[in-house]
Amino acid sequence: MIRETFSQALSMLAGDPQVWEIILRSLVVSGTAVLSAALVGIPLGLLLGLSRFRGRGAVVTLVNTGMALPPVVVGLFVYLLLSRSGPLGSLGLLYTKQAMVAAQLVMALPFVLGITVTGIGSVPRELLMQARSLGAGRLQVALLALREARALVMLALVAGMGRVIAEVGAVMMVGGNFRGETQVMTTAIMEEVRKGNYSLGLALGLILLTIALAANTLMMRLKPGRLPV
Amino acid sequence: MPAHGRKPVTLAWWLPFLAAILAVATWGCGGAAESNILIASTTSTYDSGLFDVLLPAFTADNPGYTVRVNAVGTGEALELGRRCDADVLLVHAPEAEEQFVAAGYGIERHPIMYNDFVIVGPGSDPAGIAGGQDAAAAFGEIAAAGAGFMSRGDDSGTHKKEQKIWAAAGVDPAGDWYHVTGQGMGATLRAAAEKAAYTLTDRGTFLSMRGNLPGLVILVEGDPLLFNQYGAIAVNPENCPQVNVEGAQAFISWLESDAGQQVIGDFGREQYGRSLFVPDAGSGGPR
């Protein structure tokens, strides 16, 4: 079974341009979702990590709870928004890659936000106060904190990517798994398993895992600084 | 933290992010003026591969259309129709379809084709049902023998049919012989093969998976109670002004035409030696 899976994965990669298309679509959809989550989540995380206000603990708890959002529930929520009979139905976004990005963004944001807040919180306060006393402005202090916490911020992006590229419930629901349009790795695996093609599903899973391994290896090389252990 | 003295995070760091978002925001926006038809159908129909021959044949006869199929559960397909997120439904739940039309969500129900269910089980056949043509009697014997039975238990069309047969047999299926997988047809067939149990399956899924189901054979077939009628319904524009009713009607007319019926009747002959779906447009079909 294992040998069969490996050889099937290899022959799919070698002979099936559709597989490459699906891989590329998975990467672009999930990559865009995570980058969008970074654009929103990192500044918000800085704000939340550096400021002190009443109820901050509750907000952080809420954000961390968001990491447990079941993908199908996120998919259902985004579907109801984008449905032709929903509030944003006139945009015609249901069953498009944009809808898939939106659903994955909702899933990635709590990861990026939550881990960024933790990272900023681990930056020594004395360092930031010293910078302030030396005349640094708010923005400069924030950038200093971000630079100090960048290993964890990077981890936040990797964790977010890991969550969304492996999720199937939401993209199936808002993307529709249309062949050549909105089919991604996980929905393709789901379809093959449903049809009883277990080994084909495993082969696709192996490819997905290999991509994740390659991406993480690359991240480790690029990572500017060690993780605080 | 060995961070001091490095260059700060600059705007340039964010540029790739912005570029990527812009790229995707515009991606796929250049839609042409062609007519898009969105079908909601069931996973079992989709997984049979029927659409792989049906859609190319339709678009060859009707250029200018693009057709997309959303494969979901029967209940979800009907719900998508109610919410206007499909133009055509191709499903197999006659009573639910008639309710759907009666409630004003669909224009009219068109019978298109039927396939059939078969009772499969281990070759050893502990309940002794092989060769029978009475599905209800066979279920009665399985229950009386306490032989293992796998039920999907997922409220799918197949599960509803199974419940109908238990009712016809006068059996309330429960006990340590009756197992509920809560999963699709493929997973349930696998479980039946693993446990040497009986189950009810549509013929198409069983034939396409047979190589992976050691020991399972068809034991009972041919009872009219096992027929499974498919209907096509155009979603009603009075309820959903956004639907592509023109495209939906064109697709249904083609399914009912000689050309469409021919494609349906030919499907599966080459691979399995018999049709998986029997075209019956206009006849009303068996129940």
Give a short synopsis of this structure.
Chain A is mostly helical. In chain A, 76% of the residues lie in helices and 0% in strands. Chain A has a domain of 158 residues: MetI-like fold.
Description:
- Chain A is mainly α.
- Chain A is built from 11 helices and no strands.
- In chain A, helix 4 crosses helix 5, helix 4 packs parallel to helix 9 and helix 5 runs antiparallel to helix 8.
- The longest helix of chain A is centred in the N-terminal third of the chain and has 34 residues.
- The two termini of chain A are 39 Å apart.
- The mean pLDDT of chain A is 89.
- By secondary structure, chain B is α/β, with parallel strands linked by helices.
- Chain B folds into 2 domains: 133 residues, D-Maltodextrin-Binding Protein, domain 2 (3-Layer(aba) Sandwich), CATH 3.40.190.10; 111 residues, D-Maltodextrin-Binding Protein, domain 2, CATH 3.40.190.
- Chain B is built from 12 helices and 10 strands.
- In chain B, strands 1, 2, 3, 4, 5, 6, 7, 8, 9 and 10 form a 10-stranded mixed sheet that branches.
- Chain B is globular.
- The N terminus of chain B is likely disordered.
- Chains A and B meet through helix 2, helix 5, helix 7 and helix 10 of A and helix 1, strand 2, helix 8 and helix 9 of B.
Descriptive terms for the model:
heterodimer; A: 229 residues; mainly alpha; MetI-like fold; 76% helix; B: 287 residues; alpha/beta; D-Maltodextrin-Binding Protein, domain 2; 2 domains; ten-stranded mixed beta sheet; globular; disordered N terminus
Structural class of chain A: mainly alpha
Q: In CATH's first tier, which class of one domain in chain A applies?
A: Mainly Alpha
**Name given to the CATH homologous superfamily of the largest domain in chain B:** Periplasmic binding protein-like II
The span between the termini of chain B is: 73 Å
Uncertain runs of chain B are: 1-9, 28-33
